[in-house]
Structure formats: C-alpha cells, structure tokens
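Hey, can you fold this one?
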Amino acid sequence: MPKNKGVDHPIMLGIVGDSAAGKTTLTAGIAQILGSDRVAIICTDDYHKYSRAERAKNGISALDPKGNYIDIMENQISRLRQGKPILKPIYNHDTGELDAPEYVEAKEYIILEGLLGYTSRALRSCYDVKVYLEPVEDLRVRWKVQRDTGKRGYTIEQVKKSLEKRKNDSVNFIQSQRTFADMIVRFYPPDTNREETGAHLNVRHTLRPTLPHPDLTPILDAGVKNGFRLELSRDIDGKPVDVLDISSKIDSRWAKNMEDLLWSLIPEAQYLRENVGQFTNEMNKSVSSHPLTLSQLLIAYHMVKAALGHHAV
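Sure. Predicted structure:
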C-alpha cells in the first residue's frame, strides 16, 4: 500500500463537472505536477451501466445515477482509499461500448474525475479534496461541440440535440453536486473576446472554508492591479467564501511570482514544472495558459498538504 508522510491512506481528489467542463485537462495537469508515476486516475464515468446504444433505447442518460453502478463505484473507491487494488470497468467514450475491465492499483495520489463523483455520502466521504468545475455555459457548449465533433464523430446538430435532451438531468444530477465541493473553478471568456475558448480565458475560484487555503496575500497585495483579485464574497447559497479571480491578461512576471509562491509551498513537486498549464486547443496545438497553470497548482497544493497530514477529512 502506498504511504504518505502524514496519513495512512492514498490522497484522493475529486473533480466533478458536466460533460466537456474541462475535467480531463485539469486532471492531466495536476497529475503531471504530482508525478505521473505517483498518481492513479479514475474516470467515474466508467461505471455507466449501459452502452450508448442502450441508453438511447431505454431513455436514460449518462448523467442519471440510475444509469450508473453507483454502489460498485462506492465499493471500489473505498477499496482504493484502503490502498487495495480494484478491477475497474471501462466505458469506451469513442465507441460508446463497455470494454473489458482494467486492473488498477492504488497509488500515493488518486484523482477521480467524472460526472457523478459526489452523488452519495459514501463517495463524498472518501475525498480529501473536492473540486467542482463550472465553466460558463456558453463556453462549455463550445467545448463540447469542439470535442464531440472533432474526436467522437458527431455532427454539430447531434451535439446540440444531446445537450437539449440532457438539460434537466444536468440541473438535477450534476449541478446539484456543486454544494459539496471545497473549490469551485469557473473559466470564462474576457469581455473583450466573448468567443475565446482557450489560452486567453479568465478563471474564478470560489474557495470555501472547508479547506485551509494558502496565504496568497504576499503576491496579491503587490499584484492586485496586474491580473489577480481576492475578495470576501457570498456564494449562491449565501454562505461566506473567498473569491479569487485570475485574468487572462495577467502580466507574465506576476504570474511567475504566483507560481513561485505556490511551488515554494509544495516543495515535493518542484522538480516537475516544465509542462504545467499546457493543453491542446481546437487546432490540435499545444498551448499554455497562466490561469490554467495557477488553477492546477492551487489544487496540487491541497493534495500535497493533505499527504502531509495538514488537512482533516
């Protein structure tokens, strides 16, 4: 069983969000920071009960818990938290079929990303850090069209029809999980370019007091006019939260200062800095983003601190 310095179990991160919310991109960067050989990535969408064709026939969407083996997910995530291996099902997103299961061993860090990771109390109790991704809806729709037409063979009309069909399930089953997150991450385009979908997006972090967030004031006090803003606010439920805004127009010098501060707070990960914040855009080119980099680092910070025993579940 993998050992962390301050706890006796693997550190588990949940990343939940609607389809095409950016979960896979965020997950890949966090795993790279922590070291790919130290991270197991679990897609909770692998626990779908039905193939794509079967869902179309029975009218149950992939967003509906009734179309997923939530009980098996609970059992297997609990086993991973105990450091035990699992035989994980596989849902093939390219073909829409259920493939042969995969043997997965627990590692020092485990990232679970997908649609329904916070559906039950049993699932939520397994995480050390919980993130909810909620890009503005117009942006998520553009991301979904880009992905599903470019990688999964759909037409634009098919994607839009699917989105409309899933609208109620999205509200009832996905968006309702937002309340359980420690951090809500919201990418959004700048006012000067509402069509932006990539490297020049802004990001807003809603930081709930369920985790001890890093002290960013040394940078924010100096860089408040240079792309950062941190303020006390109220969440949609009226509860107090800190809101951190990072602009796409942030000066590279101030971004580097923030990165250096965060890296200094997670010294175990400093040797893995080169490709953090990179992603593949709609032109299939690798580009980088300061807001994405800093988002990944903030989450990785909590993972490392949890491994050191600084976070209580």
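The chain has a mean pLDDT of 90. Let me know if you want another pass with a different chain boundary.
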